[in-house]
Amino acid sequence: MNHSSNEKEPETIEPLRYLSKTEVATVETELLRDYRFGQQQLIEIWGHACAIAITKAFPLSSLSKKQPTLLVVCGPEQNGSIGLVCARHLRMFEYEPTIFYPKRSAQSLHQDFTIQCEKMDIPFLSYLPTEVQLLNDAYNLVIDAILGPETDQKEVKEPYAGMLVTLKQVKIPIVSVDVPSGWDIDEPAKDGINPEVLISLTAPKKCATGFSGKHFLAGRFLPYDIQKKFELNLPEFPGTECVIEL
Question: Where, if anywhere, are coiled coils annotated (predicted)?
Fold first, then answer.
């Protein structure tokens, strides 16, 4: 029998698109304005997907310490709130997160996420020890949810500049949410913290080109029209997964 008539031409797979700071802002504005997503809804989707990515990169059974402790370091804006949501879901997944959130946002949206964590009895640190060994001993890994695409990374102010100095020295793995803190979103960093795992949200950012660690894409909710319009060429997620390793 001749099967050749049924054989499909091999599809050419377009490369995944890495977004600039401006494109990230445009996509988000469209989601909020035209597609009627709420900001709290987006933060929830991303934070949950981040938690799932962390469970894939660091399953409970793989952690070296007796307690499944994690330190989640949260910044003042949206990336920090994604960190709060991520911590809450990790608690549901039986990890033991501790949060360091030095400058709490006055926006009620961000306050809601803080209260949700407090009601889950997740401890908040009052300061970040500069004694790096204390962090190495106490936690299995650090989740960097400090500075996201919404922050001007060139002008990192205190307390974040000092926190980055500390995080550069830790020996335990760092997981960065969306953009490693201190990196310019539009280009790979020369110095700055060096995460072992990067979780890109919605689509990877330009700074992630050539990232050599484990790289996850998290959040599977983008309307197809937006995917087409921005030619994102997102990979096919397996089954019902909301996270894929790139």
Answer: none
